[in-house]
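chain below, 287 aa
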Amino acid sequence: MADLPLLDLPLLDLPLLIEPADLAARLPFADAAKVLIVEQAKAETFIANHIPGSVWLDFKKLQSAGQPAPGKLPPMAQISAALSEIGLTADTHVICSDDEGGGWAGRMIWVLDCIGHTRYSYLNGGLSAWLAEGLPTESGEVTPVASSYQAELVNSDCTLSKEQIIERIGQPDFAVWDARSKEEYTGEKVISKRGGHIPGAVNYEWTLGMDKSRGLKINELDGFRTLLQDMGIDESKEIATHCQTHHRSGFTYLVGKILGLNIKGYDGSWSEWGNDDNTPVNTGAQP
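prediction:
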């Protein structure tokens, strides 16, 4: 008997990293497939051109916006409301996309990890790569069919707190990947009360990890893995990644997931660390 077409299967086995052309070849998804393409591009960009069948999510709804660390995981009620608004259900496979190379999409994947929703993929390069490859689009606003999603914090292991990082500093099986700019890392550019970096942290700015010539797709993975290994970020270590508000480090968290690293998000990020007078801080180009 011939194999059933993928679109006829109630649950699709989609890869963590899916290429635009591969996704385009699968469209449209049947309702029974339980797939939701979630776009976190700018609203005006989505209205002008979006992937057929996708829904728009305001990335701010997955942030706490509290001070001094606005990037922390928001209350579960806020997450439940945001995911219900776009029609997510517990058995939905989420395909995450944005228009900036993976920062917001990666952060959404981190949120999904925190609430134990492990059925997800990242569209490589997001909407930028989709448009660069000339794939079909739709325009106009989209009103999703709402659901009743109840989020619960079931996986605190995807996050490291300020206190946990302080305990781990200097240990050989621990690394910190700072996704901010070089100037923020060295302390030349100060956004919080103090500038600089977490002692021992290595700096690789998030935008260096995406290929502008390929619509902001992630750099070739084998080369990326080697580069990170040379920086001391590898499979043997627990890795905390951060930026200023755990937005840019959404991308580095995503890359770590794709490469199979033991990576965790520090959602307090530098907005918390740099505004605390008691946290250790190094300045300059050296870890």
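Residues 1-10 have pLDDT under 50 and may be disordered. The chain has ten helices and eleven strands.
thats it, cya
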